[in-house]
Design a protein that fits this description.
The structure is a homotetramer of 200-residue chains. Helix content of chain A is 76%, strand content 0%. With 200 residues, chain A is mainly α. Chain B binds a DNA duplex (21 and 21 nucleotides) through helix 4.
Chain lengths: 200, 200, 200, 200
Amino acid sequence: MTPSQLAATTPTKTRNRRFDPERRDRLIDTALNVIAAKGVAGATHREIAREADVPLGSMTYHFANMDELLYLAFSRFVETCAARFDVRMQQSQTPEQAQEAVVQGIVKDYLGTSEEMILAYELYAVAARKPLLREIMQQWMEASQHSLQRHFTADDARIIDAFIEGLIVHGSLAVEPMTEGEVRAAVHRLTDPLLLQRKQ
Amino acid sequence: MTPSQLAATTPTKTRNRRFDPERRDRLIDTALNVIAAKGVAGATHREIAREADVPLGSMTYHFANMDELLYLAFSRFVETCAARFDVRMQQSQTPEQAQEAVVQGIVKDYLGTSEEMILAYELYAVAARKPLLREIMQQWMEASQHSLQRHFTADDARIIDAFIEGLIVHGSLAVEPMTEGEVRAAVHRLTDPLLLQRKQ
Amino acid sequence: MTPSQLAATTPTKTRNRRFDPERRDRLIDTALNVIAAKGVAGATHREIAREADVPLGSMTYHFANMDELLYLAFSRFVETCAARFDVRMQQSQTPEQAQEAVVQGIVKDYLGTSEEMILAYELYAVAARKPLLREIMQQWMEASQHSLQRHFTADDARIIDAFIEGLIVHGSLAVEPMTEGEVRAAVHRLTDPLLLQRKQ
Amino acid sequence: MTPSQLAATTPTKTRNRRFDPERRDRLIDTALNVIAAKGVAGATHREIAREADVPLGSMTYHFANMDELLYLAFSRFVETCAARFDVRMQQSQTPEQAQEAVVQGIVKDYLGTSEEMILAYELYAVAARKPLLREIMQQWMEASQHSLQRHFTADDARIIDAFIEGLIVHGSLAVEPMTEGEVRAAVHRLTDPLLLQRKQ
DNA sequence: AATGAATGAGTATTCATTCAT
DNA sequence: TATGAATGAATACTCATTCAT
C-alpha cells in the first residue's frame, strides 16, 4: 500500500491554525448546535471539537470541564431568547399589541424552529438535576416575567408566562402542531379578562 | 463440614437466583427509578442492573436494546400519570369539582414530587429526538385531553391541558415553587369563563 | 401502552412446534448458509437458530458445541463438492472429455457461485488452525485426486489438483474473473503434454 | 519507608510509559502476529493490546476501527510478500533461473513457515467478504504477475501465478506436504513448454 | 499558549453455554 | 425430550480528562 492510499483511511489533517482569537466564543456556539442536534448526552468534547474543526485538546484548554461549557452554552441560549422576547414586549405600545406580541413570540420564535424547542427541553431536563443550570432556567423565567410586566401585573405575568410555556410544549410535541389561530385564541381567552383590569 | 454446609456459612452472594418470573417487569420499574435519579443519560444497563440486583447480561436478555427499555419505561410512566388524572376527572361530578380536580392534579401529582417532574422533562427531551418516544408523549396528551373532555369541550380541553403543562413546568422550576393558592387562582382565571358556556 | 403495541417491539413468538424430526439435519444446512453469508466468525448459535426458526436452546441440545457443528457442516460441504466432481470425472470417457470436465468443474461449480468459494476459503482458514477441520480438508484433497486418478497418474493428479485449486482462487479473487476460455487454455497447457504419456 | 520508596519496591507496572512514537507502527506488526496465531476472529483489540503491552484505549486511539487495523496489517503483509517475490524474480537472469526462483519462492517463503500460509488463508476468507480487503488481495496478484512478467508473457504470468497459488495451498494443507522435488517437477511441467516460446 | 498522544473507566451489545423446568 | 431463562465473560468502541512537549 502506498502512503497516499493509507492517507485515505486515516483522517486527513487540515490544520496548523494557531491563531484563532475568537475560538472560545465559537466553541460555545458550536456546543449549542451540537446540543440541538444530538442532545446534551451527545454533546461530547470530541463531537464539538470535530464540528468546530478544532483539536480535541483545545476543549479542555478553554473550558475546565463539560459542566462549565454547558453552563456557558445554555446561558447564551437563554439570553438570546429572553432578549428577543423583551424586544417584542418593548415594541408593543397598546395592550392589544402586547397580546399579539405574545402570540407571535410563541409562533414565530418556538413553534417554527424545532431547534429552539429541543434546546429548551434539554435545558429543563438538565436543570432539574444540576443546580448550576437550574439558576439559568430561573433567570430565564425572571427575564420573561420582567418583559411581561411592561404590560401586565406581576401576578398576571407569572400566569401568562406559564401559559406561554404550556402552549409551546403542547404546540411542539402534539400530533398536529397548534396553528397560529389556535394559539391566538388561547392567548386571548386568558388575557382578554386581564386587560380590563390591567396595570395603569 | 461438607462443601454445601460451607456454602451456607459463606455470606450469601445473592446468586444462583435462577428463577425470577417477574424480573422483566421489575426491571422496567427500576429503569424508571434510575431515570428519575440520574436522567436518561445516566440510565445505563449497568446502573439499572446494579439497582435491581440482577446480572448485567440479564438486561439485554430481556430488552433488545436500550431504546426498547426506554420505551417501555416511559410508557408505564405515562400510563400511570394518565390513569391517575383520569380518575380525578371521573370522580368529579360538577364543573366546580372538575376545576378543583385540575388544581389538585397539578399540586398533588406533580409539584409535590420532583421525581415525576424530572421524568416528564426527560421524556420531553428524548421525545423531541426519538420518534418512538414522541408517540408516547402524544398518547399522553390525547389521554389527558380525553379526561378533560368529560367536563370541557375539545377545544377548551386542549387549552386547559396546555395550561396545566405550563403551570407544572413553571411551578417546579421557578425560584419559589407556586403555592396551591396561586395554582388555584390561575386555573380559575382560565376556566371560570369556560364554565359559563360549558358543554351540557 | 396497550399489549398489542408492546408486541410490536418484542419479537413475535411464532412457535410451539414440538415435532420436528429432521431438525438436526436442517440445522447443519442452515449453518452452512450462515457461514457462507457471514463467515465462520458470524456463524453463532443465535444466528443459526434464528435463521432456522428454532429456539436457541435447541442448538446445544443437538450439538455439543460449535466445533462439532462446524465439523459437521464443513464435512457435508466437502462431501457434496467431492461427489459432484467425481461424477464429472466418472462420466468422462476419453482423456479429452476428462480435460473438459476439469474445465467445467472449475467454471461451473466454483467461479459461478461465490458462495462455494467463500465456504472453501473459510474452510482453509479454519483448517489451518483446527486439526479436526484440517482432516476434512485432507479428505477433500484425497477424494479429488482419487477422482482425477480415473484418468491421470497419481503424480499428475496431484499436480492437476493443485492447479485447479490455484485457478479457482485466482479466478474468484482477481479484479476481473477468469473467463471460461482462459481457464480452458490454462488447463490444456498443463494437461496436454500429460495426455501423450497418460495412464493406459 | 516513604510511599515513593514503596513504589520502587513494587514490581514495575510498566506504566507511565507515555511517549512511544512508533507505537502505531508496532501495533500493526503485533496485529499480524496475533492474526497468525489466533486468526482474524481472535485478533481482538484486547488481545493485540495485551500482546503489545499497551493499554486498551490505545488501540482505538490509533485506529478508527478494527477494519482499518485489518486493512493496514494485511497491506503490510502483502507488501512484504510481494517485495520478497519481486527480488527473487529480479535477481534471476536466465529463464532457468526464473523457473528455479519460482520454486524457491514457493518452498522457502511459504511451505516452510506455516505462519505465512495462515495469514494468506485469513486474507482470502476476509477478502471474499470485505471489499476493502479484496483490494489488497488484488494488489497482491497484480504485483505478483508484474514480477513474473520480467520473464514471462502476461498471459503466461497469470497462469503461472495461479499455479503457484495452488501449489502453496496444496503443499501446506495436504497430509504430507509437498517436497521441494515435487514442487520443482510441477513447476517445470508447466513452464518448460513456455520457455520455448518465451518473451524475447 | 496550545495540542497530540495517551489512558482507565465506562458504554451497549453479543456470545456460548448452563440449567431448571 | 426440548427449551426459555439466565449469566459471566468478552467484544468494539467512546469518553473526559491528563500531560509532556
